[in-house]
Design goal:
This protein has 130 residues and is of the alpha+beta class. It is built from 3 helices and 7 strands. The strands form 2 sheets. A 4-stranded mixed sheet has the order 2-7-6-5, covered by helices on one side. A 3-stranded antiparallel sheet has the order 1-4-3, covered by helices on one side. The chain is globular.
Amino acid sequence: MKSEKIWYELDAFAKTYSSIISEGRTTCFRLSALFAENIDLEILQNVVISLEKKYPFYNSELKKGIFWNYLQQKNTPLQVVPEIAYPCTEIKKKNPLRILYYKKKISIEIAHFLTDGGGAAAFFRDLIEK
């Protein structure tokens, strides 16, 4: 049986941002938090797995339709990666949400076409509180 692909329509704001994204203009923003101890990668990955169930929309990629862009849910899980590049330089249409860690810091970088500051803050709050 073929698995059905879940897709999401973009709102007017997301349509604007999705149309101007390019290699030099990512239209993303970043949220970070510092902790007293180094980040335990195993714990962080388990939290991300639980958040994928609560926020399935955030595990999407931008696709180009005939008349409009849309988001399609990915078949791969959200990734937690070590922070090694400059901030907000690796946001792509195929990966609009990045979850990063470095020593005592957790960050998310997220494209504006995926969510606004309020949605990102809710996701980030759940990420760091668990």
